[in-house]
Amino acid sequence: MHGPSPETLYPLPGHPRAVFLKNVVTRPNILVGDYSYYDDPDGAERFEERNVLHHFDFYGDRLIIGRFVAIAAGTRFVMNGANHAMGGFSTYPFNIFANGWEKGFDISSWTGQSRGDTVVGNDVWLGMESLVMPGVTIGDGAIVAARSTLVSDVPPYAIVGGNPARVIRMRFDEATVARLLALAWWNWPADKITRHLDLIRGADIATLEAAS
């Protein structure tokens, strides 16, 4: 056996609150890697509808989630479509109410301030009710504390928390982080991951490197 199939919708038998997320995603502007899951007792299948907000195709931004990401209930991603045009005196979105207010509106004044894709790396843990703002990149191996608001990028293997979220501490020293990023165990085939689970779950970087 080489672990669960990433094509399984409900990877925990008898517990439909967790889904392998890529199997419920339908939007082409959301990309999710194998084994990343979302846990929500109120219907994890509705992730796109309830957890990815203001995500419009014409805006062009993507939500990219890596492999082996654990996303706790209530985590939300606010995408660039939530922003208002800020180049003039008023930020009020007159144009969306039409009836003459849409005339003269330049859509580039809105889309031109996009902060780009929102990216979640591999082996990231997002705590309950985390809020990720547009254009944030969360590095591999990072941990986000519950109810944190992320407005800026998170370094790989950092533990962050708060509103706005700040680095609380690093999980490992710089040299170990560099070695882990070079190993990128999350890209190994499933059978190799299965053979070396004890090393991946352990804390001996040299032995893990020897198995790579």
From TrEMBL:
Tagged with keyword Cell inner membrane: no
Keywords of this entry: Acyltransferase, Repeat, Transferase
Pfam families: Hexapep
PROSITE patterns found in the cross-reference section: HEXAPEP_TRANSFERASES
Superkingdom of origin organism: Bacteria
Family: Belongs to the transferase hexapeptide repeat family.
PANTHER family: ACETYLTRANSFERASE (PTHR43300), ACETYLTRANSFERASE RV3034C-RELATED (PTHR43300:SF11)
Protein name (record): CatB-related O-acetyltransferase
Organism encoding this protein: Jiella sonneratiae
Lineage: Bacteria, Pseudomonadati, Pseudomonadota, Alphaproteobacteria, Hyphomicrobiales
